[in-house]
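Revision sheet: structure tokens.
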Amino acid sequence: MLKVGGKPIIEHILEKIKEIDEINEIFIVTNARFYDHFKIWLNQNKLTPKVKIINDGTLNNEDRLGAVGDINYVIKEESVDDDLLVIAGDNLFGFKLTNLIDLHQQKGKKSVVAFHDLKSIEKIKGKYGVGQLDGSRIVGFQEKPLQPESSLAATACYLFNKEDLKLVERSIEQGYADNSGDLVRYLINKSEVHGFVFDEHWFDVGSFESLQEAEEVYKK
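Predicted:
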């Protein structure tokens, strides 16, 4: 497993999730290739019994479900009928998830997307999904634009209300399935979705450079 600061990234994420008393179950989704690795890891660690490893049944890039497909797979396989917190396994962030949940509650339990304000258009263009907000409501979303409308980088951290879960499968049926940004673009046109903006650190460890930066922060 990919490690930062001496331990797997997934363990950093689980530490954040443990801050939330309302969590009933935790699903970790992986493919058939790495399923046994995660099962061994789970058995070797004294984690809460809430954690369950989900095998999405895929073996390679040709048959992979994608981020939205995996979300939909868990919703259907586990009969999820409640608000759903989704965090990508390559995300490391400094904000408290309880603050994201507070916004969710303040906005009538509407869905929420976390955004990191990079404070710079140059840093965001061509690299990340970009949100445009009216107050806290998301009114626009661009996927890796070369001319960003804001400096708000979309992180793969979402809190979907239970009513929006039925829209996940519909988004796939209508072609919004390639990545999680596609789902956000679909949801903001079909429902009310809000943006939670944070300034604490955030690393998308999909590149060697960002992994090195994360290591510098987390080894301290």
